[in-house]
Amino acid sequence: MGVSGLLPVLRSVTDQVHVSKYAGRTVGVDAMGWLYKGATRAEWKAKAKKLIQEQDGEEDGRAVFAACMRAVSVTNEMVMKLIAVLRRMDITFYVAPYEADAQLAFLSRQKIVDVVISDDSDCVPYGVKTVLLKLTPDGWGSELKRRSLGANEELSFVGWTEEMVSR
């Protein structure tokens, strides 16, 4: 979900980087976002076609896309399949009990992960030190380092404490 309008305000302190920049580092990933994207892409075409037919061929792309997004969900079975794959690949993972962004921020603040990959701007107020947002299929994303917030141009964070950013 994220904080509405936050990422555009922080554009001056984000850099486009390739995920390869973090080769050899420990990365925390909000995998639910990836599962949701995968589920959306897998079902999108069929649902879009059906919705267009129901609307008598009226192809309002945004309305169809929004309806498809609401219709798609990530099932427990999908999550369990991902967990099985991660175990087979011997990849360490944590299942967040509630909010993944808060869990990832904890891992970042404790220096357990070097960077967090997420599509959710909630990572910023939760305190993630470095976040790679909006990762594309070809590995590019918007890198935001928390320590850069003071240099932001659109909204000044100079003099803000951690508590002020996090509330």
From TrEMBL:
Domain called XPG-I: residue spans: 87-157
EC number(s) on file: 3.1.-.-
BP GO terms, sorted: DNA repair
SMART domains linked: XPGI
UniProt-listed InterPro entries: PIN-like_dom_sf, XPG-I_dom, XPG/Rad2, XPG_DNA_repair_N
Family membership: Belongs to the XPG/RAD2 endonuclease family. EXO1 subfamily.
Record function comment: 5'->3' double-stranded DNA exonuclease which may also possess a cryptic 3'->5' double-stranded DNA exonuclease activity. Functions in DNA mismatch repair.
Keyword Heme listed: no
Main localization of the protein described in the UniProt heading: nucleus
Keyword DNA damage attributed: yes
Primary enzyme class: hydrolase
Official protein name in the record: Exonuclease 1
Cofactor: Mg(2+)
Cofactor: how bound: Binds 2 magnesium ions per subunit. They probably participate in the reaction catalyzed by the enzyme. May bind an additional third magnesium ion after substrate binding.
PANTHER family referenced in this protein's UniProt entry, alphabetically: EXONUCLEASE 1 (PTHR11081:SF8), FLAP ENDONUCLEASE FAMILY MEMBER (PTHR11081)
UniProt-recorded Gene Ontology molecular function terms: 5'-3' DNA exonuclease activity; 5'-flap endonuclease activity; DNA binding; metal ion binding
Protein keywords: DNA damage, DNA excision, DNA repair, DNA-binding, Excision nuclease, Exonuclease, Hydrolase, Magnesium, Metal-binding, Mitochondrion, Nuclease, Nucleus, Phosphoprotein
Pfam entry (one): XPG_N
Cellular component terms per the entry's GO annotation: nucleus
Intracellular or extracellular location(s): Nucleus
